[in-house]
Amino acid sequence: MSIEVRQGDFAAFFDAPFAAYGAQSGYVSPLKSDLKRFLDLHKNPLFSDPGSDLSYWTAHQGGRIVGRITAHVHGASNRVHGLRRGYFGYFDCVDDHSVAMALLQQAEGWLRAKGLTEIMGNFNLTAMQQIGVVTDGFDAAPYTDLVWSPPHIARLLEANGYAPSFGMTTFEVDLTTASAPAIGPKQQAILDDPAFSFAPISRATIPTRMEEARLILNASFAKNPMFVPVSAEEFHFQAKDMKWVMDPRISAVLHHNGTPAACIICIPDLNPFLKRIGSRMRLSAPYHFIRHRMTNRRAVLIFSGVMPDLQGQGINPVVLRRVILAAQKAGYTHLGNTWIGDSNGASLAQKEKSGARRLHRLHLFGKAL
């Protein structure tokens, strides 16, 4: 049966993973309205750079949608890291080699025509958003901002000449049994030092705290592989509705002499809510959101960071202790963690020390163009 590939059909693009995986899979989509604005070249500031571009395709066979893929160029990333790399993302399809090949060839051809020499993914759309392909832990339910893909996606990529690299792991802490980091001499010195103070987080101050978190993110992640500084416009575009979904009790921003020093940003896990409404803002969505807020016991740590000049002083355990104790007091029972790369030994050791269990194993997949 022939495969038809369409370009720019957003309705089909949104529906593709539901059609490919079925309602019982672990896949959870971003809100349809959010996905649409992420892929809008005119609205997403990521693509305001003249060196950046994006396109997307869907595959159709026998009257049904059987897959999707994006291809994009992140101009700033290529300049910062000295690359000629393009990316594929949102790669979801049925377990069929011909469908996968048709989609991947579209992405590869589009990027090759732009003079790029390699392709890598999933990137949905940057290293600070959802990345990777799940290679183990398929039965674990993903938290907000975590990727999920079935086993055949990695297999189909390898069958089309892609090789796995850059291993990552996601984690989960059981807050009903976990202990907050202990207070040692370093941590006590920070708590006793009047130069350090936790900034208040409330509905009114969330915009200020989020901008401080962006500054900490850019400074603390500067030397991480694939990282590109995030502009204020990009950061707040991605976190557009954060004010309405954040629980101010479970994030923390630490100041040193009145300036941002460290942060841990957590949000309630929204995936059960999104799953319930099919990631569409139906008339029943407000009811389901309120119900979710009342019953949800899962949160996810989006990112944490310490300003470089303050690293190594025991600050991160102080902030993490505050967040874990606050989450436990607020009634949360589980705390997920977005991906940590294999090269980040310190963070991996911290997760092991905290008793976190491994959720998903992920890899990036790439090939030469």
From TrEMBL:
InterPro entries (alphabetical): Acyl_CoA_acyltransferase, BcerS-like
PANTHER family: PROTEIN YGHO
Protein known as: N-acetyltransferase domain-containing protein
Lineage of the species this protein comes from: Bacteria, Pseudomonadati, Pseudomonadota, Alphaproteobacteria, Rhodobacterales
